[in-house]
Specification:
By secondary structure, the protein is α/β, with parallel strands linked by helices. The protein has helices at 21-33, 47-50, 53-65, 82-91, 111-121, 138-155, 157-163, 174-182, 202-210, 215-228, 238-251, 267-281, 303-308, 346-363, 378-398, 409-420, and strands at residues 2-5, 71-75, 101-105, 126-131, 164-168, 185-188, 256-261, 289-294, 313-320, 368-373. It contains 16 helices and ten strands. The protein is globular and about 65 Å long.
Amino acid sequence: MIKVDIKDTKQFLSTNVYGLQEKVNQIHEMIHNKTGKGSDFLGWLDLPFTYDSEELDRIYKLKEQFSKIDVIVVIGIGGSYLGAKAGYEFLKQPFKKQKPELIFAGHHLSANYLKQLLKYLNKKNYVINVISKSGTTTEPAVAFRLLKAHIENKYGLEEARKRIFATTDKTRGSLYQLAVNEGYERFVIEDAIGGRFSVLSAVGLLPFVFVGLDVKKMIQGAQDAYNDAVNPDLKKNKAYLYAVTRFLLQKSGKDVEYLINYEPRLAFFAEWWKQLFGESEGKNGKGLLVHSASFTTDLHSLGQQVQDGKRIIFETVLNVKKTDKLQIPSDTDDLDKLNYIAGKEISYVNQQAFLGTKEAHLDGGVPNIVITLDKMDAYHFGYLVYFFEIACAMSAYLLDVNPFDQPGVEAYKKNMFRLLGKK
């Protein structure tokens, strides 16, 4: 479970959070009755309960079929990549060799990365999971063209077809058509689920299953988050409380939200979170500028700006309650002057760093929302994903924008295609 603490924001707010309860009730009904802007893309809302269990069984069987592989390459960009990467980083142990190794491609256009990846795969036993609703998005399409040729040359056409899995549209699109023509194993991205809300569909579940993550615990966490968000009462609904608080902080002049972590494994979760809120709210001249930082590391760089820079920032801190135990040893010479904390757990020192930083930033005019999770496991990953998804829907509707479209994303593509000479 998680807790949301907003007490260190109240001094910065001119409006009481609970004063928006009536508006929240209206938006809650709009979300669940699917009557708001973009309501065709609310397929994620009930997904923790309606996910295709037969499809999940097929994923497990596929993993058994390829139990000896060294690598699974996941090709995708945006929501077809960030959620799986976030979950993998959230749950993997540092320095522990993972088999199969999870490698991502198609999330940029770096020739150096792709060339070295192809060379790396020459001596690896691997499979490919290509993820795209259309199959024509430039970055993953380029990567797939290269990797498809590589895997066909390595294994031969028939075997390669067995080693390519397509997660795509149910009935249309170029990737769907290719998958049908070639006989690839197919998994579905539902029309009603946009990429940034697709983590708990086959988009994320297939990579998670292949690397041995506890998908059932993830889904359980998301189900509990759903149940905790059924009641719109701000005194009970933590996701809505978070959404309303950040909305009111922006009204008070805080235009930048930093998602802060004190655990490196949370850094990529912040990348998924930035897409979720940035792409959902950044429209019509509205929306917070979403940013992230990893403390204490970034306290030695960005910390100066947060503490003393322009007063437009607030922080949402992901605070992990239970972490590994490791004591700081004593040293006879004490040249580093650390004996005053000898015998203490590093996690305790990290917690004091969090509390000391929060106190300093509050004194510097930076409000803090604190989201505390018990530990970093599959259950809490699933819970946090759904928590932020439902919070994002509420938050965007408070701004009166469509949470589920992304018209601005197409602007760079039109210019790129023109410069490349696409007809």
